[in-house]
């Protein structure tokens, strides 16, 4: 697995709701973080896993709900952040849906602008397609990163790691 795929896989996992399955997979994903070669990116993930362990899963779950489920500014649905034009939002949702369909995937239980789903899609396709998917979302990723910083969420560093990989992928694929 290429490094950008590892980063996206880990980012998708850490941005998922920490349910029982998430908790059961925690040690496995923590080990995956050790496979990252870029020191600063690896540190982001090891620090975030250590943070979750330090505060405990229940506290992390509470923070997750407050940060991503109850906050319009930091939720993980990319088309909701600049929701002034519902027609534009519907068009963006359609474009995200098409990214999944064009790559042979469909989402039955999730909206196509859900960030972890987008990351998972980008790990499952060839790098050229992953680049297209991630560049479609790049401005939203940057906006979300800024909002994570404003909210003092440790996930801001996670977004930095993803954006670094996007730039690496761009230079690798071009």
Q: Could you explain the architecture of this structure?
A:
With 174 residues, the chain is mainly α. The chain has one domain (3-173). Helix content is 72%, strand content 0%. It contains 8 helices and no strands. It has helices at residues 3-14, 20-33, 39-55, 57-69, 86-102, 115-123, 127-150, 155-173. Helix 1 (3-14) runs antiparallel to helix 6 and helix 3 (39-55) runs antiparallel to helix 8 (155-173). The two termini are 19 Å apart.
Write a concise synopsis of the structure shown.
With 174 residues, the protein is mostly helical.
* Global morphology: globular
Q: Uncertain runs with pLDDT below 50, 5 residues or more?
A: none
Structural class: mainly alpha
Average pLDDT figure: 92
* First and last CA, distance: 19 Å
In total, the number of strands is 0
Specify Rg, calculated over alpha carbons.
Answer: 15 Å
* Strand-residue proportion: under 5%
Roughly how much helix do the residues carry, as a percent range? Answer: over 70%
The domain tally reads: 1
Give the ordered list of helices and strands.
Answer: HHHHHHHH
- Determine the number of helices (DSSP H or I, runs of at least 4 residues): 8
Largest sheet: none
């Amino acid at each position: 697995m290429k490094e950008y795929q590892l980063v996206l896989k880990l980012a998708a996992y850490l941005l998922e709701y920490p349910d029982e399955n998430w908790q059961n997979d925690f040690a496995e994903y923590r080990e995956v973080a050790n496979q990252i070669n870029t020191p600063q990116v690896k540190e982001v993930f090891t620090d975030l896993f250590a943070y979750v362990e330090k505060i405990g899963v229940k506290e992390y779950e509470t923070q997750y709900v407050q940060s991503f489920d109850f906050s319009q500014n930091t939720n993980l649905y990319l088309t909701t952040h600049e929701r002034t034009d519902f027609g534009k939002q519907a068009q963006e949702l359609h474009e995200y849906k098409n990214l999944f369909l064009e790559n042979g995937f469909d989402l039955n239980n999730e909206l196509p602008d859900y960030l972890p789903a987008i990351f998972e899609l980008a790990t499952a396709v060839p790098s050229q397609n992953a680049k297209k998917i991630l560049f479609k979302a790049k401005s939203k990723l940057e906006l979300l990163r800024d909002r994570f910083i404003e909210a003092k969420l440790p996930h801001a560093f996670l977004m930095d790691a993803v954006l670094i990989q996007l730039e690496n992928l761009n230079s690798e694929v071009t």
